[in-house]
Amino acid sequence: MRVVGLMSGTSLDGVDAAVVEFEGADERELRWGVRAFVTVPYTAERRERIHEAIVAGGAAALCRLHADLGEWFAEAALAACEAAALAPEEVDLIGSHGQTVWHEPPEAGRRGATLQLGCAATIAERTGIPVVSDFRVRDVAAGGEGAPLVPWVDRLLFSLPDRRRVLQNIGGMANLTWLPPRGDPSPLLAFDTGPGNALIDAAVTLATGGRETYDRDGEWARRGQVRPDLLAELLSHPFFHRAPPKSTGREVFGRPFVEALVERIAPTTDRDWADLVATLTALTARSIADAIRRYALPRGVDEVVVTGGGARNPALLAMLEGELSPIPVLHGDVLGLDPDAKEAVAFAALAWAHVRGIPANIPEATGAAGPRVLGCFTPGGRSRAPAFIGISG
Q1: In a domain, 288, yes or no
Q2: Do 97 and 234 share a domain, yes or no?
Q3: Where does the pLDDT of residue 383 fall: very low under 50, low under 70, confident under 90, or very high at 90 and above?
Q4: Nearest to 167 by CA among 7, 331, 34, 337
Q5: How much is the pLDDT for 382?
Q6: Maximum CA extent, the chain
Q7: How far apart are CA 270 and CA 220, in angstroms?
């Protein structure tokens, strides 16, 4: 089965699309490989529209964005097919995460709510390929956080027989999965650790008036000094003191968070801004390290593998290595694929699981009432259903 996985994450940098080939009817005999991977960057206008939808989107803006995101996701899926030298009709399925614009975890006896935009019908129309989308809502409906959703895939594809791994993704937000050795029945541990790149990106954007949208090679953080008083204040945020399962997003750690901080501390010089970026970078590193020390280390950790955009920030990685020493902190390419492709591959795998009828949430990680088959199926534009439809696990 050939599946295109689409991921547009909290970093808002673009759409990642991976063409993944799966062989085997179930988890026990699964073989897989990445045939192609592309990233289609968002233009400044598209990125700003998503930002605005998160901050202040009304019904009309969200409706229009939902349709347009479907078009943008279809463009990325077709670009991935082209990169794989495949015609769309040679692809069996698309797994689309969608763009998260709002996420509320459950609390005080009230179930959570989550909204991912990106019209699946539009993707199916433009590509002719069936689409599995809206993966988070079933876990949320079952009382879970709806996040993180990649731990099932992490265990399936990246566990090792002789090591206990932490897979640490640093996108706009940061999330970890603790993996026992392959075959070990110990329950997984997975949760959002807090902000990843989102606060850093917002600070750089404000510092440069939009000329730069992220801290390329960690240059801003390297020029600045961490402010211990401000870091301690930021680490007092209630999210960092909640026990898992827990999840978060830009509605908590996004541009308004940084704008309020800037209004209060009033940076004026480049040095002031560099200090702020360095402190926000330290916040990401410290909150990740604290989470690993508090929850993963008691289970045993042989290595930490970093993926996502944060893996390309040397200043952030250096801080994380210093926080976790002597635990090895490894770049995500040790997983055998482009680290930027990992989450797109994950949603290809989740789409494969959907059509096989395989539950793919991890209740001990999300807090859901039990295992659930994730996602909603939208037929493609072909005259007959693909052969895999109706297969159950």
Answers
A1: yes
A2: no
A3: very low
A4: 331
A5: 61
A6: 63
A7: 9
Give the Å distances, CA to CA, from 14 to 39, 59, 218: 7, 23, 20
392 within some domain: no
Q: Which residues contact 240 (CB under 8 A, 6 or more apart)?
A: 194, 287, 290
Q: What is the pLDDT of residues 231-264, one digit of tens each?
A: 999 999 999 999 999 999 999 999 999 999 999 9
Examine the domain organization and report whether 184 and 133 are in the same domain: no
Give Cβ neighbours of residue 166 (< 8 Å, ≥ 6 apart): 176, 177, 178, 179, 292, 296, 301, 303, 304, 305
The answer to whether 285 touches 319, Cβ cutoff 8 Å, is yes
- The predicted pLDDT at position 10 comes to 77
Residue 366 and residue 308 share a domain: no
Q: How many domains does the chain have?
A: 2
Domain that holds residue 302: 151-339
Establish if 383 belongs to a structural domain: no
pLDDT digits (tens, 9 = 90+) for 136-155: 999 999 999 999 999 999 99
What is the token pair recorded at 213?
A: 């949208």
Under DSSP, the state recorded for 294 is I
Q: Would you say residue 386 has pLDDT above 70?
A: no
Say which amino acid occupies 104.
E
**Which helix (H) or strand (E) covers residue 121, if one does?**
helix 120-127
Asked if residue 385 is part of any domain, the answer here is: no
Q: Span 142-170, mean pLDDT?
A: 95
CATH code, domain with 289: 3.30.420.40
Residue 392 has what pLDDT? 42
Note whether 222 and 314 are same-domain residues. yes
* Judgement on whether residues 263 and 302 belong to the same structural domain of the protein: yes
Placement of tokens 């978060």 in the chain: 248
Residues 262-276 pLDDT 10s: 999 999 999 999 999
Q: By C-alpha distance, which of 330, 360, 8, 16 is closest to 190?
A: 360
- Distance CA(393)–CA(390), nearest Å, equals 10
Kindly state whether residues 171 and 209 are assigned to the same domain.
Answer: yes
Report how far residue 68's alpha carbon sits from residue 32's, in angstroms, rounded to the nearest whole number: 31
Question: How sure is the predictor about 393, in pLDDT bands with cuts at 50, 70 and 90?
Answer: very low
The token pair at 334 is 């040790």
